[in-house]
Fold this sequence. Notes:
- There is one protein chain.
- By secondary structure, this protein is an alpha+beta fold.
- It folds into four domains: 52 residues; 150 residues, Alpha-Beta Plaits, CATH 3.30.70.2110; 343 residues, Beta-lactamase, CATH 3.40.710; 112 residues, Trypsin Inhibitor V, Chain A.
- 30% of the residues lie in helices and 23% in strands.
- Helix 10 crosses helix 16, helix 11 crosses helix 16 and helix 12 packs across helix 13.
- It is extended, with a radius of gyration of 39 Å.
- The model has no long low-confidence stretch (mean pLDDT 87).
Amino acid sequence: MKTKNPLKNRKKMSVLLFFAALIIYVIFAGRFSYIMIKGEVNGENLAKNVNNLYTRSSVLEANRGTIYDVGGDPVAMDATSYSLYAVLTDKWSSKASKPQYVVDKEKTAKVLAQYIAMSEEEILNRLNQDQDQVEFGTAGKNLSYEIKKNIENEKLPGIEFTNTPVRLYPNGVFASHLVGVAQMPTDKNGEAKKGTELTGIMGIEKVYNDLLTGKDGGKEYQKDSFGYVLPNSKVKTTEPKDGSDIYLTLDKRMQVYLESVMSDVYDKYEPKAMTATLMDPKTGAIVAASQRPTFNGTTKEGINQLWQNLLVENTYEPGSTFKVLTLAASINEGVFNPDEWYKSGSVKVADRVIRDVNRNGWGTITYLEGLERSSNVAFVNLAEKMNMDVWKNYLDQFGIGKSTQSGLLNEQKGSNTYKYAAEKATTSFGQGLTVTVFQMMQAFSAVANNGNMMKPQYISKTVDPNTGEEKIIEPEIVGKPISEETARQTREYLKSVVYGEHGTGRRYQIDGYEIAAKTGTAQIVNPETKSYYSGGNNYLYSVVGMAPADDPEYILYITVQQPEITDGSISGGDVVAEVFNPVMKRALEYSHVNEEENANENQVDMPEVTGHSKEDALSLLEETPLDITIIGNGDKVVQQLPLPQEKLIENQKVVLMTNGAMTMPDMSGWSKNDVLKVSEITGIEFVFDGEGYVSSQSLPPEALLSGDEQIKIELQPKSAED
C-alpha cells in the first residue's frame, strides 16, 4: 500500500492558489482599469457623484413684477407673511442656558394673546399638548412683519416663525376684480405647497401671470465634508430675472375716492350689484373702476361673494342710456330734428304696442322734449326714420354684440338677435339686446371724442426691471361710427337732459361745470320666470355723463341694480346721483389742479415791450416760447396784450400793436379768446359764427383795419387730423 506524499500535495495546492490569486488579480485589475477609463460603476458616473457630494447650491428667488397705478404708486407687490409655531420639546436644545423650547407656558400664553386673535386660555391649551411642536391655527398665520417683530422683542423661548411669500395689495379694496389676486398654490389642507411660486388666479394678475412671473437664479459652489468652502473653488452664479412691472391707467386718487363713495352708497341702499367706470374718452384710459360686491385683495375678505368681473363678464339690458347711440346715429343720418313734433305715449310696431314710461304720454311734443323726458316712442320713431337696416349697421359700428378684446378673462360679447320688427324697434331704447360695461364705455367714447371710438385701456405700460425696457400701450381707435360734427351736436342735445325744463337728469348738475348726460331705468329679467320684474325698485338704474360737455375730459357711467329704497321721497336716480355727482366733480377738480400744475411748470412772465422799437421787442420775445402777432406797419410798439408781468404758458398768443396803420392778421386756427385780444387792443368789434377755432375771416390778412365795416369770423371745431 502506497502512502500519499504530503509535500507533493502542498505543491499542487500552492500552484492552484497562485493561479487563483492571479485570476482574481487580473479580474480586479481589469475592473479597476475599466472604472478608471470609463469613470462609471453600474452605470453611475463616479465623477458626477463626487461632484454632487461636495457641491452645494442655493436658489436666488426672482421677484414677481409689481403692479402700479398710473402715477407709480404700488397696487400689488411682493411681501412676506409669517406663521407662528411653538417648540415644546427640549431635545433640540443644545445648551441649557439657552433653551429653544417653551419654558414658561403661562407667561408665553399671556404675551401671545396680545398679538394674535386667540385667547390666553386657548393658547395655553395648545402649549399643554403632548407634542414636539404646535401651531396656532388661522390666528397664527399670515402675520405681518410688524407683529412678528413685536413678538420677537418679547424674547419668548421656543416661539418660532416660518415665512411664506405673499402678494400684498396695500390699498385694500382697489379695483379688486380688475387687478385680481395672486397667491401661493395650496394643498388640500390650505397650506402653501413647497417649491411653488405666487400665481395669479384672477384679473390682471392671472391674465398677465407669465409677464409678471420672474425666473429664479441660483448659486453653485464646492464644499468639503465639514461644510467649508473649498479654497480656490469658483462660485457659479445665475442671476434671477424679476418679472416685469405693470403700470395701470388707474389714478390712485380717483380710485380710492370712488371706492369710498361706492362703499357708502352700497351700505346705505344694499343694491344687488353696482358698477362705476370713469374713462378718459380721448385715450380710452380707465381712470377709475369699481363694482359691488367686491373684496379686499390682501385679506381676501368678501372674495367669495362674487368672482365675476362685472365690467366684462356680466351682460345686461342697458335701458335708456343706450339712447345716446340712437340719438347720435339719427343725427348722423340727418333725421333728428329737435323742433319736429310727434305724438307721445305709444306707437305700434307690427303686433306690439310700445309705450312711454308715462303710458298716456305728454301729448304732442317735440323730439327735443322727447329726449329730455326719455320717451321710448321718440326713439322708435327715429330708428324707423333711419330705416331698421341702417340702424343695425350703426349698432355694428358701435361694437354692440362684439367683444372689446380687452384681454380680460371671460369677456362676454352680449347679444343682439335683431330678428323681429318689435325686437328691432326696442333696441332703440336699450331693450331686447345685452351689453357689457366695457362695450358701453367704448361706444360712448365716440360721442365724447368727436366720433373717434376708443378701445378701453387699463394698462399704460409695462417695464422690464432687468433691462429698463418700456413698452408703452398706445391709445387705439377702433372705429369712427359718427362724424365729429354729429358728436358735437349729440353732446349739445344731451345737455338738455340735464338743464332742460323737462330733463330727467337735472339732479346731475354740478356747479361750475357743464354736463351732457343720459339717464336710464332698465327692466331686469327674472331668471326664474324668464319675464321682466315689475314694480318696486326692480330696475337697473344708470346714468352716463360727459364733462365738460363741449370738450369732455371724462365719461362716467354708473349702474345700480335693485337698490333697497325705503324712503318714498328717494328714487333710483337719486341713488345713482349719490355716486355720480361727487365722483365727477372730484375728477374735474383734479383735472383743473393738474392743468394749473402743468401751467406752473411751463409759465412765462410777460416782459414789458411797450415803448420799445419793433425790432427790439421781437428780439426780446424771441427768447420766450410765446406766439407773437404784430398789428400795424409802424416801427414802435404802442400797446401789448397780455400786459407786462402777467403769467403766461408756452405758446400763448401775444398781440403787439405798432404806431403805424392797423393791419388785419391771419387768424386761421386761432381760438375765440385770441381773436378777442385783437378786438380789445384795436377797439374793433368782430362778429362770430359757430364754435371752435377760426376757419375763415371776412377781411383778408394784411388788409387795413379801419373799423368802417363789420368783420365776420367763422369758427369750427378742429378736425381729428388737426
